[in-house]
Amino acid sequence: MIKKRMVLRFSKKTWNQPIVYRLVKDFDLAFNILKASVFPKEASLMVLEISGDEAEFDRGMAYLDSHGVVYEPLEANIKKDEERCIHCGACAAVCPTGALAIQRPEMKVVFDTEKCSGCELCVKACPPRVIVATLSSNEVQ
Amino acid sequence: MAEFKVQKTYKEINEKIKKGKVVVVNAEEMIDIVEEKGAVKAAQEIDVVTTGTFGAMCSSGAILNVGHATPKMKISRAKLNGVPAYCGLAAVDLYIGASELPDEDPRNTVYPGEFKYGGAHVIQDLLSGKPVLMEAWAYGTDCYPRKYLKKELNLHELRNAILFNPRNAYQNYNCAVNSTRRTIYTYMGALKPLFGNATYSTSGQISPLLNDPYFKTIGVGTRIFLGGGQGYVAFYGTQHVFDVPRSPNGTPTEGAGTLCVIGDMKKMDPNWIAAASIQGYGVSMYVGIGVPIPILNEDMARFTAVKDADIVTQIIDYGGDYPKGIDRSLGTVTYKELKDGLITVQGKEVSVTPMASYPKALEISNILKEEIQKGRFYLGEPQATFSQL
Ligand code: SF4
Ligand code: SF4
C-alpha cells in the first residue's frame, strides 16, 4: 500500500472526462480531494491524496499519461526557500495541517511536505515571501 | 548606592578585549552560569553577555545622500523603485522609510492586501547590491536649476547611506489574540477568530533590553550589532517609557523601553535586514540587533541571567480592545509558556506561534560574542544614560 499526494493538471480537452473515476474503478485506488479548481472548458487542476497498491498506482499514473493528464507529487508545487527563511513563524500561524510547524526548543520553522494539503495560505502569510507555490498556475504544457 | 563586591569599568573590559583575554557568553549561556555559581562569582568570571533580536521593526529607514548631477538639483520629490522618499531636507538628502508604499499599491482595497514592495524592499535591494531606480523632481532655483533626474542608485556609489531607525528593539511586547468572529490581519500576523491562535514578538530571555531592564549600561553611544555591521544607540526610541510595572527581576510586564539606532548601511549585510510584506497590514522590515551587556557588577550578572519563565507579557485582544484604544489585558503569560506553544485565554487552549525569529536572534548573539572575543568589537561607553536625558 502506498499513499501519495499528487497534483493532476487537466487540459481544455480532458477537463470533462471521467478520468478520476477510472483511477478508482480500473486500478482500485482510493482518493481524497484536497483541492480542486475545475473550470468548464478550461485547464483545470486537482490535488488528490491517492492510496492503493503500488503496482496499481504506477499503472494508474501510466493511464493518466496516456490521457494527457500531467501529474506530479504535491511537494514539487509548494517549496520553502530554506536559504532565505528567517524562521519568524508567521506561516505556522496559518498552516491548517501542521505541515509548517515550530520545532521546539530551537524555535526553527520546519516544513513537513507529507502533511501539506496545498491550500497555499502560507504563501502570502510569509513576510519575506520565501514560500513559492506553483499550484495556481494551471497551464498544461 | 549599594557597594558591589565586583566592580569593573568599560575601560578594563575593553583592555581585556584588546589583550584577547575577555570572557564573553551569550544571554542563554549566562542563565546556567549564574544559577550554578551565583551572581558574584559569575560577575567575577564573565565580562560581557551578548544579546540579540530579529523582529519586524516598522519604525526604520535610511538617510541617503544621492550626490549631485550636473547641473545641480534641490530634490523636492523623489521615488525609489516607485516608492516615495521624504525630501524635506537639504538638496540631495532623502529619507526612505521602511513602511512607505508606492502610490499605485492597491493597499487593502483587495483585502487582505499583499504589500509586495515598499521602502524596506528598497533598502534590502540596495544592501543586496541591486541597482535602484530613482526618479526625482524639483522646482529649480538659481543655485540648483535642474528640475528632473532619472538615475540608477547603487549602494557603493551613494555618497552616504545611513540606517536610522527611530524606534527599534522594543523591550517587551504584547501577545496578540482575536476575540472577533473573523480572521484579522495585523502587524502581529494573521489572528484567527474566537481566540483561534496567539502570536508574540520578542526573543525573550536573549532580547537586549530585557537583559538590562533599567538601562544601566545601554545608553546614548552604546555600540551595537546593527544589520550585520556595527551601529550605535543614538537616543532612546520614540514611545520609550521607563516608569512601567515590573516583575521582581526588574523586567517590565508590558511595552516599556525602545531604542533609536543608527549605523552605516554600507557595512551591513542583507542577511540581517529583511523586507517584510505583512498581509493585510503593510510593509515592515526585520532588523537584526545585538547589544553587548558589560558585566560591571553582580547586579548586571543577575539581570543578564533572566530566563523566559520569569519574563511576562500581556494578552491583548487585537480584534476589539486594541483598535478601539481600550487598555485592557486578558491575562498575563510568561515567555516560557509562549515559546512552549500553548496558553489559556478565557478558558480556551490557544496555540501560539512567534513573529520574531529566535534562531536568528541567537545567531546574532553568537556573532557578537565571536567579534568581541576576536578583538573586532569594543564596548562603547554610553555618553549619557536615558535617565540623565
Ligand atoms: S500550502 Fe497549506 S497546508 Fe501546505 S504548508 Fe502551506 S499552509 Fe500548510
Ligand atoms: S513565514 Fe516564511 S520566513 Fe517566516 S518561518 Fe515561515 S517560511 Fe520562514
Structural commentary:
By secondary structure, chain A is α+β, with helices and mostly antiparallel strands. Helix content of chain A is 23%, strand content 31%. In chain A, strands 2-3-1-4 form a 4-stranded antiparallel sheet, with helices on one face. A two-stranded antiparallel ribbon of chain A has the order 5-8. In chain A, strands 6-7 form a two-stranded antiparallel sheet. In chain A, strand 2 and strand 3 form a beta hairpin. With 389 residues, chain B is of the alpha+beta class. Chain B has 2 domains: 10-57 and 166-380, no CATH class; 68-163, no CATH class. Chain B is 18% helix and 31% strand. Chain B is built from 8 helices and 26 strands. The model of chain B has no long low-confidence stretch (mean pLDDT 97). The interface between A and B is medium-sized, with 19 and 31 residues. One iron/sulfur cluster is lined by residues 80, 85-91, 109, 126, 128, 130-131 of chain A.
Helix and strand content put the structural class of chain B at alpha+beta
> What share of residues of chain A is helical?
10-25%
Bound molecules: iron/sulfur cluster
Oligomer: heterodimer
Radius of gyration of chain B: 22 Å
String of helices and strands of chain A = EHEEHEEHEEHE
Strand content of chain B: 25-35%
Number of domains of chain B: 2
CATH superfamily of the largest domain in chain A: ACT domain
The total count of helices of chain A amounts to: 4
Kindly name the structural category of chain A.
alpha+beta
Globally, the shape of chain B reads globular
Percent strand of chain A equals: 25-35%
User: Hey, which two chains have the biggest interface?
Assistant: A-B, 19 and 31 residues
The radius of gyration computed from the alpha-carbon positions of chain A, rounded to a whole number of angstroms, is 17 Å
Largest sheet of chain B: 9 strands, antiparallel
Mean pLDDT of chain A comes to: 91
**Separation of the first and last Cα atoms of chain B:** 20 Å
Strand order of the largest sheet of chain A: 2-3-1-4
